[in-house]
């Protein structure tokens, strides 16, 4: 079935690219020279282009030999972080040093990104390259956090075999020096905290504290992205699936704290959401954004959606899918979703390592799909200069 998943992904990608060509040719201006992405197309091939294939080959070789199936779990988390960091760095340096430059300012609607940049600058880190390296190092924490949540929700072996999927993800193109990657870290920490709190081994004050922590992280993340609250739906489903529905109260209570503080300081979250519309053709971009999703998540997305019912980690897909669908239907997906959806991409592929049938035997890691996704990101990075 792995080859079939790859074939389906290739067919859908080709269809999406054809639609994008029609949009560029016949639609009103899309607001970018690099549809379906924001940025420009320009050859980026050089000596630094060899780094990413080397990193991908190393990770795939280690995974094929089953090393992560046997390694102690803390080592799995550490090496997963390093693999994700190296992959992000390798894709970024294709564009030279500027690929790691951090933002000098952030004019977006939610206050979170601007506040983080202000705090970083006040801490004495003002050089754009230093800011970019810091954000890249923090953004790579998504890998171990997602692995921890997948292990709790799906099982130990599924999490270990998910490592190459998340570490070599195509969306790493947009993770370097990105404030959106910071949002992805906050959400990954939120989901991990909720999974920890709802585990049957946690009861009483420990479970309540974990649920409140998850809510606080969700509220903070909502100060960075208007689509993030939908990810809380993952915890709602997880709590009900584990018969821990009371934890919804504690998570909801925690989420209200950052939002309430922001309201007292003058930021009205709902007003910011209404002001987030962009002057771009919504219908064309709604469809094109789904192509971006397909390319950024890679072929593992097809396998994950096919096997969604076979994993107890299905709540992760529900929350991320709801977030993406809501932005498309609300007309907020008007270009740039490769940045805005970074938070949701990892959760959409968690079922790629699920059994072929419910409660079935473990399956090998989808290394063919991982390799094809890595090759796709290398090609995209070789011709695309992402918008800063």
Could you please describe the fold and organization of this structure?
The chain has 388 residues and is mainly α. It has helices at residues 2-26, 51-64, 67-70, 73-92, 112-122, 128-139, 142-154, 156-167, 179-198, 204-222, 232-241, 247-264, 269-274, 282-297, 300-306, 314-329, 337-340, 345-348, 367-383, and strands at 39-41, 384-386. Helix 7 (142-154) packs antiparallel against helix 8. The two termini are 38 Å apart. It has one domain (2-386). It contains 19 helices and 2 strands. It has a two-stranded antiparallel ribbon. The chain is globular and about 55 Å long.
Summed up:
The protein has 388 residues and is mainly alpha-helical.
The helix content, as a percent range, equals 55-70%
Neighbour order of strands in the largest sheet: 1-2
- Give the mean pLDDT: 91
Largest sheet: 2 strands, antiparallel
Percent of residues in beta strands: under 5%
Q: Please give the number of β-strands.
A: 2
| SSE class | mainly alpha
Order of helices and strands: HEHHHHHHHHHHHHHHHHHHE
- How would you sum up the global shape? globular
Total number of domains? 1
Low-confidence stretches: none
**Estimated radius of gyration:** 20 Å
Note the gap between the termini. Answer: 38 Å
Individual helix count? 19
Protein name: Glycosyltransferase RgtA/B/C/D-like domain-containing protein
Keywords: Membrane, Transmembrane, Transmembrane helix
Organism: Phytohabitans flavus
């Amino acid at each position: 079935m792995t080859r079939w998943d790859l074939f389906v992904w290739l067919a859908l990608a080709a269809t999406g690219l054809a639609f994008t060509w029609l949009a560029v040719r016949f639609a009103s201006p899309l607001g970018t020279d690099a549809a379906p992405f924001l940025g420009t197309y320009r050859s980026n091939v050089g000596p630094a282009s060899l780094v990413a294939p080397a990193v991908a080959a190393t990770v795939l070789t280690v995974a094929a030999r089953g090393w992560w199936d046997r390694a102690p779990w803390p080592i799995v988390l550490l090496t997963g972080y390093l693999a994700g960091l190296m992959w992000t760095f390798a894709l970024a340096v294709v564009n030279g040093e500027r690929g790691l430059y951090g933002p000098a300012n952030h004019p977006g609607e939610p206050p979170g990104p601007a506040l983080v940049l202000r705090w970083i600058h006040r801490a004495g880190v003002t050089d754009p390259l230093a800011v970019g390296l810091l954000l890249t190092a923090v953004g790579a924490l998504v890998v171990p956090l997602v692995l921890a949540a997948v292990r709790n929700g799906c099982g130990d072996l599924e999490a270990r075999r998910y490592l190459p999927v998340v570490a070599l993800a195509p969306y790493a193109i947009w993770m370097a020096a990105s404030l959106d990657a910071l949002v992805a870290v906050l959400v990954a920490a939120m989901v991990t905290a909720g999974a920890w709190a709802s585990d049957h081994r946690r009861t009483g004050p420990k479970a309540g504290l974990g649920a409140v922590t998850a809510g606080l992280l969700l509220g903070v993340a909502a100060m960075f992205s208007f689509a993030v609250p939908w990810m809380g739906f993952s915890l709602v489903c997880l709590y009900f699936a584990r018969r821990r529905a009371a934890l919804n109260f504690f998570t909801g209570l925690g989420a209200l704290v950052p939002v309430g503080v922001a309201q007292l300081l003058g930021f009205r979250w709902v007003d910011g959401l209404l002001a987030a519309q962009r002057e771009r053709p919504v219908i064309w971009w709604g469809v094109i954004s789904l192509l971006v999703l397909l390319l950024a998540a890679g072929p593992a997305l097809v396998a994950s959606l096919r096997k969604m019912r076979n994993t107890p980690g299905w709540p992760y897909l529900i929350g991320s899918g709801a977030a993406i669908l809501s932005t498309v239907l609300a007309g907020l997906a008007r270009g740039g979703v490769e940045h805005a959806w970074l938070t949701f991409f990892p959760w959409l592929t968690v079922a790629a390592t699920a059994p072929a049938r419910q409660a079935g035997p473990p399956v090998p890691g989808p290394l063919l799909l991982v390799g094809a996704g890595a090759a796709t990101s290398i090609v995209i990075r070789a011709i695309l200069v992402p918008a800063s």
